[in-house]
Amino acid sequence: MARDVSDTTPITSRNMLVEWLEAGSKTGGAPLLIGTEHEKIPFYAADDSPVPYEGAGGRGGVRALLEGLRDTLGWAPILDRDALIGLYQSDGGGAISLEPGGQFELSGAPLADVHATHDELDAHFAALAPVARALGVRFLDLGASPKWSRAETPTMPKQRYAIMQAYMPKVGALGLDMMFRTATVQVNIDFVDEADMVQKTRVGLALQPLITAMFANSPFLDGKPTGRLSQRSYIWLDTDPNRTGMLPFAFEKGFGFERYVDYALDVPMYFVKRGDVYHDVAGASFRDLLEGRLQQLPGERATMSDWANHLSTIFPEVRLKTYLEMRGADAGPRAHFTALPALCAGLFYDAAALDQARELTKGWSAAARQALRADVPGLALDARIEGRSLRDVGRDVLALAKGGLRQRARLDAKGRDESVFLAPLEAIIEDGRTLAQQRLDAYYGGWGQSIDAAFTDCVLPQ
């Protein structure tokens, strides 16, 4: 999330929290939009070293990247105290933000179709490329930092990240790796009403392991293969069980906005923001803030900003806010940044495709879904559920998505519908080898078992 929400309305009832989620419903025929977010790991091309905030060796760093884009795009600054930590379009469009280790993120605007997402990406890279080149910076297209240790990875000057950094080791062994050494692409989709939200959440959760498998692209860490195809996904398994996972309660009778609110209220907090200060309340209960009895801030009561910010610190495979976030994919090449929104638009924005996807997955038990989630970081498309490989499931799901996109019939200037953006996923399913496996082949082949080649071969074009 690029910016913390600013809404000082006091929360006087639990129902206000439910209504805040429900307000995202796109009723009355309002268009269903697609938002795409992607992270990319910067490095100095001269020596394959990480890019600190203030730079290194006389070279400009992440701050200089932001300043250059600010001057190029005219976007407004996002500040944390005096530090420039992001940019945003003042008309409510996209934003640029920083992840804890300097991962450079575009939070795309809500757009009508994947063609518009493609154009947004073109504009983003066209603006970023000359700024990055002038600084000698390039960007990896991997889902995890392949070489630098956690200690070598820079830290961005954001107060909330300092709070998270202190808290993460208390609740999981790999939370700091999640913060500093992973990168993702995610898609945000709309819902029409509560029933639609429930259906999309269930399908989304059931299929996130498939998305992880198809987008698996993080086989390296600390300069060598990890033995897994999505190390990023594996890291999430040992980050913080209170705020991650497959949300089995979402498949139970009665799931809806109220049940998600109750879940979120029981997730420990990280911080409370007042003015420009992030107060460290890590591990505290939001329920105590609601009642004005938070030990760290006696008498302080929750506002709607606190609620929105708290929801942004919960990290399940599918996250509910005023829209749904699909969070299972590794970052990757440019074509993957449009493949994921195409997959999601085809599945979730065509009623027949959504119903058939639910029919495909509704017989999967909670235990089977959880076992699949545990298996997929290592096995990717070879993981199995209810007797079928994910490669086979992927064929069915891509066919549904392709049909949904053709039914949407959103055409570009050449008369092509959005299904053209599924091509990278169709190639992976047809070949049976993920991008991670292709890169492992290169590592043991032409790279001569040296990770340094990744800084040439696994780089976003600019």
Automatic annotation (TrEMBL):
Protein's name in the database: Glutamate--cysteine ligase
Gene Ontology MF annotations: glutamate-cysteine ligase activity
Keywords noted in UniProt: ATP-binding, Disulfide bond, Glutathione biosynthesis, Ligase, Nucleotide-binding, Transit peptide
Organism: Methylocystis rosea
InterPro entries in alphabetical order: GCL_bact_plant, GCS2, Gln_synth/guanido_kin_cat_dom, Glut_cys_lig_pln_type
Pathway per the UniProt entry: Sulfur metabolism; glutathione biosynthesis; glutathione from L-cysteine and L-glutamate: step 1/2
Similarity comment text for this entry: Belongs to the glutamate--cysteine ligase type 2 family. EgtA subfamily. Belongs to the carboxylate-amine ligase family. Glutamate--cysteine ligase type 2 subfamily.
Described purpose of this protein according to its UniProt entry: Catalyzes the synthesis of gamma-glutamylcysteine (gamma-GC).
Top-rank EC class of the record's enzyme: ligase
A UniProt-annotated Pfam family: GCS2
Keyword Membrane: no
Catalytic activity entry: L-cysteine + L-glutamate + ATP = gamma-L-glutamyl-L-cysteine + ADP + phosphate + H(+)
Record text on subunit structure and interactions: Homodimer or monomer when oxidized or reduced, respectively.
Listed SUPFAM superfamilies: Glutamine synthetase/guanido kinase
Membrane-traversing stretches: none
EC number: 6.3.2.2
